[in-house]
Recover the amino acids of this structure.
């Protein structure tokens, strides 16, 4: 009986410890998938400074700033959000009937996609001034 | 004598700890700052009393090994999840506090395994704490009605929030208190006691109805039905009690439909949203806010004014669906225990929370299917002995078992509409684990 309990206990410890590499693998796979989606939106946008840049957001969610680009009649078709370190942590494609969201906002440090934050903020500032 | 003194000390500390947890989310800022630190101190004191009681009468202490093992495994998983968490330090803090509550309530429940009187004292302490919170809310309403009532809006009618910051918070405790008061009322041997607890139950129901909290309504009344069905007595008596509960539920539900949200003017309902144009770039948050994109007016071409019907679940269901989808992005192990606020991104129109407002989905999100399976296994192992003892008629010995199961049912049902299984400081967390663990020790025999 005692031996059986010991075996069950050891098995439980092994399963719990095995969850650590599984959890980390899931974390990395999730980050990879989301970053691939963000890269897709970035490619669809092209250069950040372009005439279809149509709207912005400042300080939303976990302190993100965003740039939104027009496609066709949709003024918010493509969106790119970055954090204070210039890491791109969210991108939204609204060209279909519903938004396709790629986001790593819960773990910004997992993002290896960066933009020139100062240049992006300058674009937002320019939009703010032209809206006045 | 010593046993009685220790039991009473534990009961008084439990009362204070539950009240402090409620005060920790009070609408009164001064109360919050004191209560937030007091609740942890009280929990530790409660743990010390429980340990002393368990050690002094260790021959009477019992806990079923499988319950202890499963709870231990669940707590260990919450700690280990720091290994893949998006916020490891936060995960460790949350896991430590949750494990502390589970440990303290396990020790307490073990003390009550062979002592129904001890269990009864603990349940009475819970009932007293719920009554105190309800009374505090009522007194605040008398003194400062504007603080105790959330004003009507276009979405909601005016809602009673009593002592708490949110109209859904206090009712969580009321829902757990309802079966405890109800059990006291229907098992009382004197008319005066029956009337007292009957009035207390009606007071809880009245505050719950005034709060408009639908999750607590469902949880509280299903808990009453559990007590009614499991209570000792003839079948005819039980049927009568069940019908009385159903009648009270119908009356309460009807009462909750009376207040209405503010009317929306025709202009606002048909209003046009701002749109960007090449000549005038705009702040997109004004047209398509990130926190309300899914199901939002920009996509649906509506005004964005949400008018809620009593039975409407239109805002919560998309949020649950989204949270489940997010959970299945990391399905086995989740994002790390206690990281619900960060892992869940609220993108749902009309949904006002940083959490999915469903504790089961919250557990899935935080510790994946592995954690959810362990949690549900622990709950089932706790409930099974209580239900079995009631069905086999040992309820006569553990007189308060129907109340225990009723309160546990309410606490578990509250998890369907509130996210709190990860938060040890939450108003109903201590109650959840204490009632579950009291159920788990039902039917344990002295010779075992």
């Amino acid at each position: 009986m005692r031996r059986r309990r010991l075996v069950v206990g050891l098995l439980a410890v092994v399963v719990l410890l095995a969850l650590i590499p599984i959890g980390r693998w899931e974390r990395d796979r999730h980050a990879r998938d989301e970053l691939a989606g963000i890269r897709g939106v970035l490619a669809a946008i092209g250069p950040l400074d372009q005439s279809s840049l149509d709207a912005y957001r400042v300080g939303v969610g976990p302190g993100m700033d965003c740039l939104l680009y027009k496609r066709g009649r949709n003024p918010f078709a493509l969106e790119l959000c970055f954090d204070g370190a210039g890491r791109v942590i969210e991108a939204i494609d609204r060209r279909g009937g519903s938004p396709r969201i790629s986001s790593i906002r819960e773990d910004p440090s997992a993002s290896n996609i960066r933009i020139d934050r100062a240049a992006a903020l300058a674009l937002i500032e320019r939009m703010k001034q032209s809206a006045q | 004598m010593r046993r009685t003194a220790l039991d009473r000390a534990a009961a008084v500390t439990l009362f204070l700890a539950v009240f402090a947890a409620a005060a920790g989310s009070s609408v009164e800022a001064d109360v919050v700052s004191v209560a937030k630190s007091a609740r942890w101190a009280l929990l530790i004191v409660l743990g010390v009393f429980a340990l002393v009681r368990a050690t002094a009468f260790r021959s009477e202490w019992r806990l079923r090994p499988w319950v202890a093992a499963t709870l231990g495994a669940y707590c260990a998983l919450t700690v280990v999840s720091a290994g893949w968490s998006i916020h490891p330090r936060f995960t460790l803090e949350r896991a430590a506090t949750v494990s502390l509550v589970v440990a303290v309530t396990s020790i307490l429940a073990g003390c009550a395994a062979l002592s129904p009187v001890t269990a009864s004292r603990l349940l009475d302490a819970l009932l007293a704490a719920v009554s105190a919170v309800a009374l505090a809310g009522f007194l605040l309403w008398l003194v400062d009605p504007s603080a105790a009532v959330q004003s009507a809006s276009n979405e909601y009618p005016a809602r009673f929030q009593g002592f708490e910051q949110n109209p859904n918070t206090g009712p969580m405790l009321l829902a757990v208190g309802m079966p405890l008061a109800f059990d006291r009322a229907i098992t009382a041997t004197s008319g005066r006691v029956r009337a007292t607890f009957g009035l207390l139950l009606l007071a809880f129901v009245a505050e719950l109805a005034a709060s408009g909290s639908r999750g607590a309504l469902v949880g509280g009344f299903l808990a009453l039905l559990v007590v009614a069905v499991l209570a000792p007595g003839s079948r005819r008596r039980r049927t009568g009690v069940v019908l009385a509960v159903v009648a009270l539920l119908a009356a309460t539900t009807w009462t909750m439909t009376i207040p209405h949200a503010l009317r929306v003017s025709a202009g606002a309902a048909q209003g046009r949203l701002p749109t960007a144009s090449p000549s005038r770039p705009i702040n997109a948050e004004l047209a398509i806010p990130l926190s309300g994109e899914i199901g939002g007016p920009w996509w649906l071409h509506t005004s964005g004014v949400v008018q809620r019907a009593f039975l409407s679940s239109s805002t919560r269901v998309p949020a649950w669906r989204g949270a489940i989808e997010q959970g299945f992005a990391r399905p086995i192990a989740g994002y790390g225990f206690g990281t619900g606020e960060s892992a869940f991104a609220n993108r749902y129109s009309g949904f006002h929370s940083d959490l999915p407002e469903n504790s089961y989905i919250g557990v899935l999100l935080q510790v994946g299917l592995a954690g959810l399976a362990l949690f549900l296994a622990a709950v089932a192992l706790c409930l099974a002995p209580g239900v079995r003892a009631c069905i086999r008629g040992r309820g006569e010995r553990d007189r308060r078992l129907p109340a225990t199961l009723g309160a546990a049912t309410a606490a578990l049902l509250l998890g369907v509409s509130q996210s709190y299984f990860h938060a040890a400081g939450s108003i109903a967390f201590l109650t959840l684990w204490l009632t579950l663990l009291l159920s788990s020790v039902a039917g344990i025999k002295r010779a075992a």
The mean pLDDT of chain A is 94. Helices of chain A lie at 2-45, 117-131. The beta strands of chain A are 53-60, 64-71, 74-82, 88-93, 100-103.
